[in-house]
Specification:
Blueprint: H1 3-11, H2 20-27, E1 37-40, H3 46-54, E2 60-64, E3 83-86, E4 99-105, H4 114-124, E5 125-136, H5 143-153, H6 163-173, E6 177-181, E7 191-197
Parallel strand pairs: 1-2, 1-4, 2-3, 4-5
Antiparallel strand pairs: 5-7, 6-7
């Protein structure tokens, strides 16, 4: 079966509706400049809906290469509903310095052209903006099995990045400062929160 079929199946699982990774990630952010928020990987739209509530009244723009999983009618939005755009992360259809924050939650591991994605995010972030990547920790013992399963059912592009690999991509794109975080109770956990700061 086509990878798109399995992507839609996995997108409907309860784990795809969780906003816990967003909640923890937002706690790590510095004071941001004014401006909208970009979410890379809209999925069902739960993340964008959460961001529109948690970061209100900032506008939220969520992109995805396909919007077939989107279930906007059943989502609880903030005062400014998100805008959903059909687009690919390596070719963002937005002007320079359009966003204060870019977020990719459990998405970056399957994006094509990761170096180009970082360059595009850097281009579209404002000075003082942040790129937040919440994804699989490439050092975790489950990273390799995760890649195998994703290669079978979701995408052959899947790669669980280490913090060092993400930091290298960020530096090459022009980001001045990076940091990686884990939940205090799970310092070597499956998830990592990576922040790249544009100064």
């Amino acid at each position: 079966m086509a990878p798109g079929f399995w992507r839609r199946i996995f997108a409907r699982l309860p784990m795809a509706r969780s906003t816990r990774a967003y909640t923890f990630g937002l706690q790590l952010l510095p004071e941001l400049p004014p401006g909208p928020v970009l979410e890379i990987g809209a999925g069902q739209g739960f993340g964008a809906a959460y961001l529109s509530r948690a970061l209100a009244p900032r506008p939220v723009v969520a992109i995805d290469v396909e919007l077939g999983c989107l279930r906007a009618a059943g989502l609880a939005f903030g005062p400014v509903p998100p805008r959903f755009v059909l687009a690919t992360a390596p070719r963002l259809p937005f002007r320079r310095e359009a966003f204060a924050l870019a977020v990719a939650v459990m998405t970056f591991h399957c994006l094509p052209e990761p170096a180009q994605v970082f360059r595009e995010v850097y281009r579209t972030l404002r000075s003082g903006g942040v790129f937040l990547v919440a994804d699989v920790n490439g050092h975790h013992w489950m990273a390799r099995p995760f890649e195998v399963v994703e290669h079978w059912f979701i995408s052959p592009l899947t790669r669980a990045y280490t913090p060092e690999a993400l930091a290298a991509l960020a530096r090459q794109a022009g980001f001045a400062r990076t940091a990686v975080h884990h939940r205090p109770e799970k310092p070597g956990g499956f998830m990592q929160w990576f922040l790249a700061h544009k100064t």
